[in-house]
Design a protein that fits this description.
heterodimer; A: 480 residues; alpha+beta; Ubiquitin-like (UB roll); five-stranded mixed sheet; 11 helices; 21% strand; B: alpha/beta; Rossmann fold; de novo design (two linked rop proteins); four-stranded parallel sheet; 18 helices
Amino acid sequence: MADGLINLTIDGAPVSVPPGTLVIEAAKQAGVLVPHYCYHPGLPVAGVCRMCLVEIEKAPKLQIACATTVTEGMVVKTQAPAAKDARQSVLEFLLINHPLDCPICDQAGECELQDFVFQEGQPGTRYGEFAKRFNPVEDFGPDVLYVPNRCILCTRCVRFMEDVAKEPVLNVSERGDRAFIGIHPEARLDHPWAGNVVDLCPVGSLLSKDFLHKARAWELDKTASICTGCSQGCNITLDTRDEVVVRVRPRPNLDINRYFICDHGRMHYRWMNRGDRIEAPLVKKDGGLHATDWDEAFARVLAILRGASGKAVALVSPGASSEALAATKRLLSGFSWTGAFQVVMGEEAPLSGVPNLALRAERAPNAKGAEQLGYTRDYAQALAAAKSAAVVLVLDEPDCAVETDGALIYAGTVLGEDAACRRAEVVLPIANVAEEEGTFTNLDGREQRYYQAKPAPGMAQPAAWVLGQLAQEMGLAEVQ
Amino acid sequence: MGYPHKSHPKETVVLSQYFGDADARTFKGWTKRGGYEALAQSLKMDPVAVTDVVKESGLRGRGGAGFPTGLKWSFMPKEKKRPHYLCVNADESEPGTFKDREIMRWTPHALLEGTAIAAHAIRAEVAYIYIRGEFTEPWTIMERALAEANAADVFGDITIHLHRGAGAYICGEETALMNSIEGKRGNPRIKPPFPAAAGLFGLPTTINNVETLAAVPHIIKRGAAWYKALSLSNPKSTGTKLFSVCGHVQRPGNYEVTMGFPLKDLLYDMCGGPPPGRTFKACIPGGSSVPILTREETEACLLDYEGVVASGSMLGSGGVIVFDDSADMVYQIMRLARFYAHESCAQCTQCREGTAWTTKIMERILAGQGKPKDLDLLLDLSENMTGKTICVLSDSCAAPIVSGIKKFRGEFEAYLAGKRQPVMVG
């Protein structure tokens, strides 16, 4: 056993954890999930749901695993008959006022009440014909609805707003079984990080209006991804239903975003489902762009690159993957090249209770990565240089006001009616972030991988593949 | 003095000596009666020495739990690194209990003096007296007394604040009381940490009941041995205790007796027994949160911590609720359950849902709509509500249910069998 660790036994399995560890966390190390509602590792301990009652040898009564710290030689029995009985009774108590409207509840399928009742609840109720508590649905904020009838008063939302967001607009109002989550009469739940209360809610009491009735939990495919809303690099999950992104949720990463994402990031996904995509390579013919196959498009690009020399300019999106940016650089490495990007700026919105976590002013996921690869922020100068460049490559900057006397190549996802890139010799259709695998470097220089959540439309391919293939054809060395 | 009655010869009046004597309320009147001498004496003593005297006296908390007071004081950090606080629990909300009210009404300076001595003993510079919101008269009297005492500058470096509650029963629970003083919702906190480690504002805190502290000046002045000798039975229960008697007795009120006094004598001699033509049926000896005693158990019960436990209940706060043979125990227990359902802070699942569910079943039984399995259900719910929550409010709801069904099952069954006129409650 390692030095300085506390050794204990949980359901017969020995574990060693640092001093101060809570029994509920130590149990996770032993592969035991103690059922719980109010406990959440990202929030202060409340100890109110009483669901995580476990038997601890030598303790006079059952203890809650979420508020008990480990001691040397402790013997925890989560499956002791008394503990199981206690948890079963908590479930019975929770269900007497719970509407069991699972068939119309968004949470169904990912509901901790459903899960634990299924796991260790009892069939039927002894509550009988008494009426269940009723309170009407409340509109809490821009994206949050409160369904009090489903609420089990775990207070996770209250603690998030109070201790993490530091904007205490929620409380427990009233007492006894009349209690409900109240909101300050003059406040809205419109904090830039307020949407996290929906994820934190263990039942379907706090709902996202954006996700309302959109999909059942079991219809969703989940893909690990990185948020593209800003340069923070929050880890997210893209939830897709039938190849459409329908929801973004935080993916825990204690070093970056803990368990949270901001509302800007949460809502920053609709563009991933855009229908007006470039679905085939286009080449200029008779003064207009015409769809073609990859072979012809590649041949045109190679002809341009082989026939040109001197200056080349790349105008790239700071939302492109590091792999795509590296491939761009490699492709232009035979030229005297300049690469630049521009970042949309917004207001910074920190999550006060977590150090170094904010919706960053820089609203792009890979500006740091672009910088590290030698791209500059001097976009205006690059734009001016483009005028006289032999070759200009625009990487997914659909609104780029590029003008050049040289050859323009555009690799992008969309192409507007009046876009300057319509003047391109070749247009290469590429995948967006949800359709490819890639790497972003966040503002602190942390490189993070994201994965493909859905197929790219038509013939579109990841930019890194398209540009990498071209560089390969040119016989250019890989960028180090 | 069982105010408003004349003192009964069997009483041992220490705390209640000046009940009914308006002159004792004033600072002048109090000092004339020897008040604040114990404080002056204590301030000259080392805090540890004061604590030792109280430890030696055997004084135990009068709020309900009966924890040894001196021992509690000694839990405060030995080395003072941060401010210490004293909280005085004057939130007396336990149904059937009204002793602290009378202490504050008649002898406010006794409480202030005891508070200052305790603050000195635990090396607290600030003491908060948390007074129940409904106590309008005691509040005014305490305010006046504190102003007088401050004007006379008797407290040394100790500052005493009065804090007024807002009417929640749960704020009498020590950690809920601290939350309430801090301006938060009065919810009990999970323990540990205990108040001596992290109490009010997260700092080392001791919390004592009004009656406990009112006894302290007497102990300092007259010595631990004198106080210890005030016991009729068990050496672990010493001194005098105020009992608030209400319900079906001829002379309800506060009575002060030494520990170990027979409950039978309290009810028959001092309180004059049941109303004419009636006999006692049951008694709750320690405030509404403790198990109910039958008449036989009541008549055999000795009033000290151990004695009442031996009879099957607890001494609690000393609120004695008496029922004669006209009482409908099912109705009475429903009223208690309804009280706890109303006062549950809503934190713990078992309490929030259990107290309300229990009440609904009790109301159903009274309405003549009880189900045959209801008693078993009540007992099972009570079991699930006992020993599993942050504080004991849930246990307190279960106690009268369990003891009531056990001891008065016939009354419940009469309702279930339709042999009693249904009582509509709502």
